[in-house]
Design a protein that fits this description.
With about 775 residues, the chain is mainly α. Helices cover about 55% and strands about 5% of the residues.
Amino acid sequence: MVSPGSYVLSVALLGVLILSLGLSAVWLRRWLMPAWKGAPARLVESIVGVFLLIGLSEILGVLNLLYAGALVGAAVLVAAAVALGPRVLSEGGGAGEPLGFAPEASPAVRDRARGEKEDAASPRHPLPPPPAGGALTVIAVGVVALVFAHWGLTAADALSRGIFNFDSLWYHQPFAVEMAKSHSVTGIHYTETVFTNWFYPQNSELLHGVGILLTDRDTLSLFLNFGWLAVAFLAAWCIGRPYGRGPLTVVAAGVILECHTLVVREPGAAKNDLMAAALLLAAIAILVNWRASVPRVARSGGSPIAEDAAASEHMGEPTATGPAGRPLPLAVAGLAVGMAVGTKSTALAMAAALTVAVIVLAPAGRRWAAAGWWFGAGLAGGGYWYLRNLIVVGNPLPQLESIGPISLPQPERLQGGRPDFSIAHYATDTGVWRDYFGPGLDNAFGAFWPIVVLAAISGALLALVWGRPRVFRWMGGVALFGLLAYLFTPLSAAGAEGMPEGFGINIRYAIPALLAGLTLLPIADVPLFRGHYGYSTRGTWALLLGLLVLLVATNRADAVVRDPDRLAAWLIALLFVLIPAALLYARSRGLPRGLVAGGFAALALLVAAIGYPAQRSYLDDRYANANAATAIPGMHLDSAYRWARGVEEARIGLAGTTAGFLQYGFYGTGLSNQVRYLGEKAPHGAFNAIPTCAGFRTAVNAVELDYLVTSPLLNFIEPGEPVTSPEARWLRGEPAVTPIERSGPVTVWRVNGRLDPNSCRDEERVVPQQPD
């Protein structure tokens, strides 16, 4: 249990860290990108702040200095350096000459770039927003609150029983705990012997590790993805903002963010799919605001829509001197893409498409400079994990077995999970579409899933064909390329031949492209949306109504008013959406900046005050109830999880992949246990099952365990029918171990001394495999 004093200290450290990084991001943006105002400026600051946190954590982690005090101290030093930097550089003349590559190049440069002249002269260029901007903004805020509340239901469920998402228990949270406990990012934590997920990029896990480092608990992990939900909505607003379509792009994004695939997996867990999608959407939003030719905007009584759009008129002005003349928006977009790739390798396809778009969109004569800024920022944002793989394996992406005829180093795997078929493998199999793909899409996006998918494809196609300015055409192409790449992504239709059971779970790989495509739809310059002087009011409301119907139908949004946890869910929406929106509205109506800042400070204190009893309740219930570990049948780990709640600072070994795939619960309530899966290291970072009794007993002795958990092989094809793993049999007759907890095929053993490898009666070499 966390004492009040310890909780206050954790809150203080967290507050200083967030304040330092936030101020650093704001000051950097004001110094280097002073022309950016409003929502795009907040988006840039969010990206820079997260990058500073990841970068500082990686640097300290490489030096084995990732301690709470060191991280907070480093953040304070960075804030001090940023505060003093402009003054020192201006006194020393260090600002230098601009590169002449401004946020929006001069007309002469645009004319030299292919296609730009067409954009400037296009008679179909979007014009002012319709007069109903205030009402649209209110609806958009309501949609954001609804999605936050629906996510809150899942978070409330996790608060009542513990993190229960499979991938979070398997590797997301174990990686995070190991970083926090080892104070390093260089080590490799082997989770089991079937997959090689220790070579996945781990930006997300690093952020969860920082939360654990500062609080000694995993409570923050339940809410971290709400921050990425906010970033996704902010990026969606920024995409539509220059054209007065911010509310519509927010509602369009909400259709995807409200889908079942995200609602049941991202909140209350350590999943990283939304983090990657939000960062990619943020990169698109920054590029749109950087390269779009902003139209003349009619002010309408000081409404937020008009003011936000009017502020963007100045974002494209070249700066004559100083660092603002450099292509820093391009670098920030590159940071976002780099961090996305450093979060999930499945982001590489859209990252590659964005790279092509950036180089083509750069003004003529500045494309090499654009590529340098883009790749430099991208490598800074996500390159560390691929460099680590290159050093350990000789291959930055170990999942990639070859490039054409050239074979690449990769870890050998003696065990296999389910076959990693792609959707393209079943392109013409009508039976699979009927029995698996159709039901999976229906579960993910509701009965109207064909309309949701078609709307996302249409948004990307319309942007590609009719996008004005040219940046929208390229962003449409990026979304379409992402959807095409998804069809060929390994594991997108994982499962035995003809039975792609993994399709429904892995629809999440398509989320970034679907989110981008649907968000682009309201920007389409088509007759339905166009009036005599701009977007038509009738077309705007028709599109809004259609999007709202899709949003409600996607995932039964009415759950937020009938679920038993609805009060907790709406409290989350109130604290994270409605109160901040009210404060921002008050500021737009003239409330002094100091009062608004005081309001946000009071809100932060209120959240901290609510957090203490919420955390106490969470830790009391965490994995204490039946079925807390997982809803997948055949696991039999609930009893072992309850046992681990009362164990502290013990060395626990795991055998049998079921325990490996769900190992997180064995770290204990205070995350103080050392958990190790038993296996054999092999060349190129491989980690394989121990094939003999003597080898297994030797491995137990080597790690000096206090407890050992034996379990069956997790059967991905038929989870309810686990496959026997030999480790429990190898312990028969061994006096140094005593069974203390049993549930089905899972046994917890107390290790009383050293095991005798020479007394093994069964030396048969056995490497259990998945059934065909």
